[in-house]
Amino acid sequence: MILKNIRIKNFRSYYGETVFSLSEGLTLVIGGNGDGKTTFFEALEWLFNTTAEDKKESNISAMRKSELEIGESDEVSVSITFEHEGEKELEKSYTFERVSADYIRTKDFKFIGYEDEGSERLSVKGANLLERCFDSFIRKYCLFKGESELNVFNNDTALKTLVDTFSGIKQFEDLVSLTEEFEQKSLNAVNKEMQNDQKVSRKAKDLDSRLTLLNRDISDCKKDIATQETAINDYSVKLENLERYQDTSELYQTIKERIKALSEKQAKLKGMIYCDYNTNLLDESWILRSFPKILNEYQKKSSALSREKRKLEKQETERTAKEEGKREVIEQIQKLANVAVPLPWNLPDKETMQEMIDEEVCKVCGREAKKGTAAYEFMENKLNEYLRHIEFEANSKDIPVDEKKVLFPNSYIDELHTKQIQMSGSVEQEISNISTEINDRLVFINERKRDLEKINKDIQDAEDEKNRLLIQSPGITEDLLDKNFKDLKGFIETKSRAEKRVVELKQKLEGLIKDKDEIQAEFNALEPTNTMTKVYQRVHTALERIMKAFENAKEANVTTFLTMLEEQANRYLKLLNENDFYGIVRIVKTVDGSARVELRSENGYLINDPGGAQRTTMYMSVLFAISQITALKREQDYPLIFDAPTSSFEVYKEDVFYNVIDKIDKQCIIVTKDLLLSDEATGQKKLNDDKIQQLTCSVYRINKAPNYNPLDLSTIKTETKKIK
Amino acid sequence: MAKYLTNGDKILQAVLSDQRLCECAEYNPTDFETISDALNSDNPIVCAIAKIIDGNERNLTEREIYNEVSNFLRQTI
């Protein structure tokens, strides 16, 4: 079966009809994340699925659905044209119709095949045509999603199915069991006859009893071997899984260690920034933290007050001095104007003065002082001066004469100044030290807080990285990664112990079988008198030989197939690893009847942990080998379709690998995101044109049509372009 | 034209090709291509093997096959 083209119509992101024309060698379908690679692969899976009439709405192109008016309809279809004893076509489809704004009905599921008969084109049942040209067995070895599916021996029945299919021999196991039963029955019959034979009865009983014991021991020993081999197999699978996820596990452990170290730092920093402010406030005198500032302000204010006081005192001194000076000048002038010394202001008294004015006589000098004269005016002025004095004294009699004269009667400013002096010097220095200490501590705490913020961010980043790693490793849990890593040593030791035990048990079994054979030979050598007993003996011997021949043939059948598969696989392994180390593929039969693919060095050394590309090419070699054996044995070929099989490949190997596959005589379709480069300016993915030019195969580029709304699925459609 | 071989024929060929059995039972494995060839053989071992495979293909019970084969062997060896 050679695929000629694939048509995908309105299947998820494939809006409208998209056609892929395929070459007979390799066709690469290159696209970035979300560009429709897996949809391409799943469209084929949907086409090849014959188990159900799957017409679910989720497979319909969201863009096409959104365009439909009520009552309008369209169809989803996937079809292939292929060459298999003439050109044939297979198409699976169903119709979808918009019934209401929020309801789409799907109907008319069809799975039809077309083939030419003479000049006529006949339509046949799709499932029948598919089964005829590309049967379910082959389909199992045709579609592979991701690297993890490449190991075809990942289920218990794989080897048996392959052996049955390719040797063309089925039911071998049933016949082996049947002949084992016959041998045992005939042995029982012989024993019975022997024990009834007069001549050999006693000896036969003895030998039978020993044989029974030996058979029991052999059975127990075989059970033990099976148990140990199962354990070895289990641990091999576990170790294989661990190796497969080693990179993930190592990365996980690195991240975990980083988180642990960061968490320790985080705890340390939290301890450093802890500060009991309430206690420190009084116990550690933190309350005085602002004291230097306050003291400074106090000093300034106290100095200002002191300065102001001195200034006011000086002004007062000047003022009083001036007044004193004035008074002395006035007195001097008065002295110069009137030699006689004037009477004090209170002499004569008010009544005498009023009497002298009224009588217009100066009774001090005894002369007349008529109204209008200078003497009369003098007396009037004298009376007025007297009255002013009286009034002034009446107004100021509450103020003590001494206090009125002192500008700063209290010593508050001086006290303030004294305090200032007391708090300066050593006290100030001591408190200043406390403040500096507190300040240093707070600076330290703030710096650690900043460190803590950074650590918290780093922890968050590491946690995010860990989660991304787990998301990118589907099927692996955190527990599994943890457990696997911790149990690695345990697994190896347990496996090693089981292997040693198997060797011991096998030696023991060999001894037991040898003993049994000897006893059996002794038994067979008994010469019974009864002729019929002799006949039973011969029948048993014949059936025993037949049983062994069946067992050997069954084993040889498996061995022949494995040898053939290994031979073919190694041929492809060499091709796939051109100019590189490739080793030798060994397919080892396991105790559970399945097989394990191993990579060994020429000297037989087991390569426990083949690198990603090595492992992939190893499994792919086996797939190519199965395909090749199918071609040889069944005279039919079939395509191999892979979804992202090379995700663990190093970049430099991709183009070389694809060219090798293209040259292998097998039709392959690989959907991949290899050979894409990131455009530094736009961040968009673009083809690595240099490498594409070096490819010999067909290449399709698929990508999302531009200007889509990342929040709206109905704006997404896959565009396809044939590059070469 | 190559003869079509059934599953039973292939099993027969595989079993008869056992070297030890060939020597003990003294037959030439290439003489027996099909079940039918083996059933017609004078060699009791070859014929017994054919009877086992044939009986299994004819869906006889285990007891039926055993009785047939053991009776045959009792009479022929």
Task: Return the CATH class of the domain at 2-142 and 638-722 in chain A.
Answer: Alpha Beta
Q: Provide a count of the helices of chain B.
A: 5
Which runs of chain A of at least 5 residues are low in confidence (pLDDT < 50)?
none
Oligomer: heterodimer
Mean pLDDT of chain A comes to 84
The order of strands across the largest sheet of chain A is 2-1-4-5-6-7
| Parts with pLDDT < 50 across at least 5 consecutive residues of chain B | none
Broad structural category of chain A? alpha+beta
Mean pLDDT of chain B: 90
- Residue share in helix of chain A: 55-70%
What is the tally of beta strands of chain B? 0
CATH architecture assignment of the domain at 2-142 and 638-722 in chain A: 3-Layer(aba) Sandwich
Q: What key phrases describe this protein's structure?
A:
heterodimer, A: 724 residues, alpha+beta, Rossmann fold, 6-stranded antiparallel beta sheet, 6-stranded mixed beta sheet, 18 strands, B: 77 residues, mainly alpha, 5 helices, globular
Strands, helices and their partners?
The complex is a heterodimer of chains A (724) and B (77).
Chain A lengths: L1 E10 L2 E8 L4 E5 L6 H12 L13 H6 L5 E11 L3 E14 L2 E15 L2 E6 H8 L2 H5 L2 E3 L12 H10 L4 H25 L4 H44 L1 H27 L4 H7 L7 H47 L12 H10 L1 E2 L4 E2 L5 H22 L5 H5 L6 H12 L2 H46 L6 H48 L5 H46 L7 E6 L5 E6 L11 H23 L5 E4 L7 H13 L4 E5 L3 E3 L6 E3 L1 H6 L3 E7 L13 E5 L2
Parallel strand pairs in A: 3-14, 3-17, 8-13, 13-14
Antiparallel strand pairs in A: 1-2, 1-4, 4-5, 5-6, 6-7, 9-10, 11-12, 15-16, 17-18
Helix pairs in contact in A: 5-17, 6-7, 6-17, 7-8, 7-16, 8-15, 8-16, 10-14, 11-12, 17-18
Chain B lengths: L6 H10 L2 H7 L9 H5 L4 H14 L4 H15 L1
Give your account of this protein's structure:
The complex is a heterodimer of chains A (724) and B (77). With 724 residues, chain A is of the alpha+beta class. Chain A has a domain at 2-142 and 638-722: Rossmann fold (3-Layer(aba) Sandwich). Chain A has helices at residues 37-48, 62-67, 126-133, 136-140, 158-167, 172-196, 201-244, 246-272, 277-283, 291-337, 350-359, 374-395, 401-405, 412-423, 426-471, 478-525, 531-576, 612-634, 651-663, 689-694; strands at 2-11, 14-21, 26-30, 73-83, 87-100, 103-117, 120-125, 143-145, 361-362, 367-368, 584-589, 595-600, 640-643, 668-672, 676-678, 685-687, 698-704, 718-722. In chain A, β15 and β16 form a beta hairpin. The longest helix of chain A has 48 residues, at 478-525. In chain B, α1 (7-16) runs antiparallel to α4 and α4 (44-57) packs antiparallel against α5. Helix content of chain B is 66%, strand content 0%. By secondary structure, chain B is mostly helical. Chain B is globular, with a radius of gyration of 12 Å. Chain B has five helices and no strands. The model of chain B has no long low-confidence stretch (mean pLDDT 90). Chain B has one domain (7-76). The interface between A and B is medium-sized, with 31 and 28 residues.
